[in-house]
Amino acid sequence: MVNEQNTRERKNHRNMDDAPGFDTLMDDLKRELDLVLDKLRPQQDEHITHGPAVTADSEQALQLFGKLKVMLENINPECIGLLDELRAVEGTEQLVSQIEDFEFEAAARTLAEIKKLSG
Predict the structure, then answer these.
(1) Domain that holds residue 92
(2) Res. 20: pLDDT tops 50
(3) What angle do CA 30, 34, 39 make, to 5 degrees?
(4) Residue 119 predicted with pLDDT over 80
(5) Could you tell me if 82 and 46 lie in one domain?
(6) What is the pLDDT of residues 53-112, one digit of tens each?
(7) How many CB atoms lie under 10 A from the CB of residue 100?
(8) What value, to the nearest 5°, has the Cα angle with vertex 57 and ends 77 and 117?
């Protein structure tokens, strides 16, 4: 029964490849996807070229770390709201991941380590 169904599906697939207009449909689909990718490319390029813009020892980062420390000590899930700002700080990838996973105690230890390393 299963082999029979697989054989039918393969025949249908082959028939679709041979169907008139299939290549045209595939070309149209490719063109549409290329247009979408072209529109998204500037956003991707911007994200790649800019990356983290703030160093961990900057005043901006230290203020953010102070606010985050209190939230983590209180196991405050609203610290999720700081993730975008944290992503802009170099070296915070593990910290961001821990907060995303609601591992607040581990995140507090990682934050302390980052602050220690940044001086």
Answers:
(1) 59-118
(2) yes
(3) 155
(4) no
(5) no
(6) 678 778 889 999 999 999 999 999 999 999 999 999 989 999 999 999 999 999 999 999
(7) 11
(8) 85
- Same domain, yes or no: 108 and 74: yes
Residues 63 and 98 in one domain: yes
User: Both 38 and 66 in a single domain?
Assistant: no
Q: In whole angstroms, what is the distance from residue 85 CA to residue 35 CA? A: 31
First to last CA, the chain: 69
Long-range CB pairs of 62-69 (<8 Å, 24+ gap) are: 62/115, 62/118, 64/89, 65/111, 65/114, 65/115, 68/111, 69/108, 69/111
Same domain assignment for residues 114 and 63? yes
- Reported as a single tens digit per residue, the pLDDT across 35-53 is 887 787 776 655 554 555 6
